[in-house]
Request: fold
Amino acid sequence: MTSNKGVLKWIEKVKQIVNPDFVVWIDGSEFQLEKLREQACKTGEMVKLNQEKLPGCYLHRTALNDVARTESRTFICTKTKDEAGPTNNWCEPKEAYDKLYSIAKNSYKGKTMYIIPYSMGMLESKFSKIGIEITDSIYTVLNMAIMTRIGKKVLDFLGNSDDWVKGLHCSCDINEEKRYVCHFPEDKSIISVNSAYGGNVLLGKKCFALRIASFLGRKEKWLAEHMLILGIQKPNGETKYICAAFPSACGKTNLAMLIPPEVYRKKGYKIWCVGDDIAWLRIGKDGRLWAINPENGFFGVAPGTSKKSNQNALASTSSNTIFTNVVQNLKDNTVWWEGLDKNPPENAINWKGEQWNGKTSSEKGAHPNSRFTSPAKNCPCLSSEFDNPEGVPISAIIFGGRRAQTTPLVYESFDWNNGVFAGSAISSESTAASTGKVGVLSHNPMAMMPFCGYNMGDYFKHWIQMGKYLGEKAPKIFSVNWFRTDKNGKFIWPGFGDNLRVLEWILKRCEKDIDAKETPIGYIPNISDINLEGTSVSQEDLNKLLEINIDLWKKEAKNIKEFYQIFENKLPDELKVELENLEKRLEK
Ligand code: OXD
Ligand code: MN
Reply:
């Protein structure tokens, strides 16, 4: 399929190590993919679902010990530990290669080696980057075929270039003691062993599009971010684009596919989804910041996805989707998960592959991290700019976390550096579901803590530097918090579609349409500038949502200072100054 010497040499080398019985190049044709689906159903790797109700849909169950990304076994293997920084696990490259190759040795024996050429971004875009993933799992091939642009056309486009990322995935025997997801950014290389769960094996996603790409972005003056991208079409027909970074499980997919509240729909507002997880951001010829979504599909969390919470995501799963670790309803061979509706199936198989009765069982049927892999094209609100090789121009950047107190519903940073400071200070309180403990605060700068492929101190510097390149044309930076609670622990803000009310304020601020109130942390809305028409939120609630408690913020500043210490001399002076200025303003 290619005469690219570098590609062929690497494939030969890997072949010698993993020792496959067969080698198959993935050409991207529907014919080949269909054959693979048939084969996976024969071996039990996948289950074909009801093709009338769910055309083109399949179900896969992972091993019980292999259900999520494995951060503690994820490594950045740079020449020096300093390059990986204090927030990443590090291993010296030679040691890592030796260890991984010895685990991978002969692991394809009796199996087929699939070679997937793929592109992150549309081939003709200057944003895009090419990768080649070798895998022994058909599930991985079929997921990559949804999540990325794959096939021979990618190799044709690559030609003889050496600008591509190597990815080797070996399922081995899914031994969690020997599970590693390792990145070699200096070699543009990724190796993942002993897992077959999407997040660890769809190497185009977190591994390439965030960890490797963030490293490349620093060298090449762009940003690879854990951000959704959405377009807000206003009643006058104009569409403005924003990017937003939230830690995992803070509702990124829901915001990306938001359905406007009725009063907004009537006025003519529309939301267009460009991406739900990753944004690559470059400075365009016009000096503004432009974004593409390098992916081609959604790898979304199923539980909680319903007609009510995210009709667009649900619609995206209605065809050509691979479900992982959800419930199989035996009555009509469809799928179910907690939060889909209030009608769990009685005759079903749970994510573990056991008989399960949703009416009587005390156990959950779907794994809390069960997933759907759906083509972006299925999304009813997919932006017409989704495939635009130029991307979309970004008017605002939003950072968000999950905080019961402290952070107001929304505030605008004073300027770029102040916004970078806000992003670096994102933190979230754990929910019972994630850790068993409620309210434990964890820092997650720019929601990139698990995904930054180099020293986060240098990453902050790169952000500061990007602001310098952008100058006057830099997007404004905002922080939001949908999760503030009242004294009974109830969320005050309704969230979901109503978040558009906050986005509207953000756009108006970008267009210099309205004033705002200056506070020590930034600008907050004047109460009358958030449209509450059609909600049950009172002015008093809004006051509470926007309250800045000076004592809590003093505690917050102290907490940020402590957190910053881990970056030692890598912390940019600009962020030290921002923190000092915040402290001074809080004392006033
Ligand atoms: C994801 C994550 O799967 O952020 O997107 O964990
Ligand atoms: Mn994510």
